[in-house]
Structures are given as structure tokens and as C-alpha cells.
Amino acid sequence: MKYYLIAGEASGDLHASRLMSALLDRDPEAQFRFLGGDFMAAVGGKPVKHYKEMAYMGFVPVLLHLRTIFANMRLCKADIVAWKPDVLILVDYPGFNLDIARYVHSHTSTPVFYYIAPKLWAWKEYRIKNIRRDIDQLFSILPFEKEFFEGKHHYPIHYVGNPTVDEVHDFLSTPQGNEPRQDFARRNGLAPQRPVIALLAGSRRQEIKDNLPDMLRAAAAFPQYQAVVAGAPGITPDYYRRYMPADGAQATIVFGQTYALLRQAEAALVTSGTATLETALLRVPQAVCYHTPAGKVVAWLKRHVLKVEYISLVNLIAGREVVKELVADTMTVAHMRRELGLLLGDPAYRQRQLQGYDDMAARLGQPGAPRRAARLMVELLAGRAR
User: Considering the entire predicted model, what is its pTM?
Assistant: First the structure.
């Protein structure tokens, strides 16, 4: 069968590549064409556009690149129609993908599958009408989404498990997953005798600019530890150094080793997103820290506009506060220092968080999300062909 996939950012590229590999196991004759990245290209098929030419985040960048965004949409729509795939598989990236879904649904007979459901439970719940109209099958990776889509909106979905569980599980079976601290320290120019505080300041430039300086200042209050920053793909060391304060709050930066870094860390300060889930699955005590401009205004909006009580995936999946969320007006150096002090110095506090991680992991289920999704997709498509 012919599979057309669209992934608009780095995480989607990784998840889509694992789904493609699982589809190949089920369908050895599978042909792929895609908008995505290097991980997808490594599996095989025909890349049409790299996600780096598509991924504009924030109001101003989107506004400045509207012409490019619309050109990419036109190209994608025309390419799908010309190639006539057996299925279109959309991976996250709802702003772009829901527009593509609407076009494909109204102009072709190609079924539209959505892998990694749009987070309508957080905001833009009105998009449920787009899902109903344009998506034939929706595959969820978060267990609480089943109640949202099926219980609240009566739209049936498939919960297949979470691919991050697979990624962490696979990492832990590698040599780096069990690397001694001395070896990790030697490879990265660290002091082997000093324990590590990991800083995950985000994957985008604005996030790093906003979060890293205060994270460093908070970690500097614990001089017996060394702060190590997880470098994001596509961000240069010079960019990180630009936001390292001149007051001694320095850190080492390591690239392409986020999981390995977390395995060595005693605690972590983490921006919201998949990184909070990864940190929890690797069992590192953490505080979630996310700076926003006009913190008090954003805090009010969080209480009165957002549809959910929490912003971190750990708390959302657990259904309670497992990790402390320091967001908007509560994201201060003083609050981060206090939380780090508890995570590093209070064994009972650490243990409660680790127990919460166990509860969260149980809700996520076992590894195998890409395989389960691929099996369902192939079965559903075979049923349509009969």
C-alpha cells in the first residue's frame, strides 16, 4: 500500500519514523511519501519537504512566513492528489495538518488517519468539528484522551500507548542506558565526583532565552552539584552561552545525549512538553519550569481560559500533582531553588514523586505503541479494500 505521512517538527519526525518501520513489518510492500525529517528519510521513501522548512512557531514568525506556509500547503495538497495514496497519515502538528485533512477529505476518497491526536482538551476544543468531519480514524497516545473524545464528544478513537515509553525502553537496553557516571563525565568533560543537575530549557530559541538564565541561577545555589544543559537539535553552543549569566551561574552543554544526561542526573529542571514525560520515565525527580511574558496575566488565563488543571504531561496522565509546576508568575529563581532543595535534600519528598511516576507509567501501559498503531492501520485499510 501507499502511505503519505506529514510530520511538521522534530518529535513528529521521530514518532512517524517508528510508525513507518512498524508499517513495513506489517506491509513489506509499503511505499512511503512524506513531509518530515531525517528519521523518516532513514526508513525510506520519497521526502517531499523537510519539516525545517515548515516549522514556524509563535504569532510573529508565522505572520512573517505566511507566504511560505501557504506555498507549502498548496504543494502538499497537489502532491497528495497526484500520488493517490491508499491513506494519509497525519502526525501531530494540527495547525497545518487539519487544513490538509479538510482538503483531502473534500477533494479525494483517500482515508485520513491521525496519529498523535491534537490536544483539543487543552485549548481550541472547537476543532472537534474538524476532527468529526475530516478524520476517519484517530490514534491517541495519551490515556485520558479516550474520555475526552469518546466520553465528552462521542467520537471513537484508538488508544495505542505512548511512543515515548518505547523510546525510553529502547534506550535503557543500550550501553549508554547503563553507562557508569565516570564514563559519562569523562566523555563530556565533567567532574566525575560531582553529582549532576540536568537543565532542559526547551527546544526553541525563545524558550531557551526565557528559561535558561533563571534555571542556571537556581542550580548555582547548589555548588556541590554541577549543572548540565541538554542541548537541543539545531541550536548552537554559542546561542546557549549568550544566555549564561555573568554571575558565575555556568553549565556544561551536551548535545544529542538528553536521555544519557538524565540517567546521570540527581534532579532536573524541565520545561513543559514531552521532556517532562521522558524525565519521569527515566525516574529523575524534576520541577517543571516555564517562563511566560506578563506572568500574572498568563496565570489568570491559565486559571480561566485553559481547559486543564495542569500543563505537564506527568500530572495530566497521573490525574494529580506529581511534579511541581512553576509557570508564569510562579516561575522564579526563589521557587526553583526551594523545589530543587526538596528534590535533592528530602528523601521522603523524592520518594513521593517517584511513586507518582510509577502510577503514571502504569496508566501509560507497556511499550509497543507504533506496532499497535501499525497493526490497526493495516487491518482498517484491509477492511476498506474488501
Answer: 0.89
E-only strand ranges, 70-129: 87-91, 112-115
Q: Which CATH number fits domain 179-364: 3.40.50.80, 3.90.870.10, 3.40.50.2000, 3.90.70.10?
A: 3.40.50.2000
pLDDT tens figures, 72-125:
889 999 999 999 999 999 999 898 999 999 999 999 999 999 999 999 998 889
Alpha-carbon separation of residue 31 from 1, 3, 21, 353 (angstroms): 6, 6, 11, 45
How sure is the predictor about 265, in pLDDT bands with cuts at 50, 70 and 90? very high
The 8-class DSSP code of residue 180 comes to: -
Q: In sequence order, what E strands does the chain have? A: 2-7, 31-36, 46-50, 87-91, 112-115, 137-140, 158-159, 196-200, 226-231, 252-255, 265-270, 286-290, 324-327
**pLDDT tens, position by position, 306-356:** 557 899 999 999 999 999 999 988 999 999 999 999 999 999 999 999 999
DSSP letter (8 states) at residue 232: P
Q: For residue 291, which of 179, 216, 222, 348 has the smallest C-alpha distance?
A: 216
With beta carbons less than 8 A apart as the criterion, state whether 33 and 56 touch: no
* Distance in angstroms (rounded) separating the CA atoms of residues 30 and 346: 53
Extended beta strands in 251-376, E state? 252-255, 265-270, 286-290, 324-327
Rounded CA separation 272/358 (Å): 19
SS3 294: coil
Q: What is the DSSP letter of 290?
A: E
Instruction: Note the pLDDT of residue 60.
Output: 44
User: Which residue intervals of the chain bear CATH 3.40.50.2000?
Assistant: 2-161+368-385, 179-364
Average predicted confidence (pLDDT) for the chain:
91
Superfamily of domain 2-161+368-385: Glycogen Phosphorylase B; (3.40.50.2000)
String of DSSP letters for 260-278: HHHHHEEEEEE-SSHHHHH
Contacts of 10 (CB under 8 A, 6+ apart): 37, 51, 55, 203, 233
- The residue to which cell 523510546 is assigned: 167
d(Cα 66, Cα 134) in Å, to the nearest integer? 24
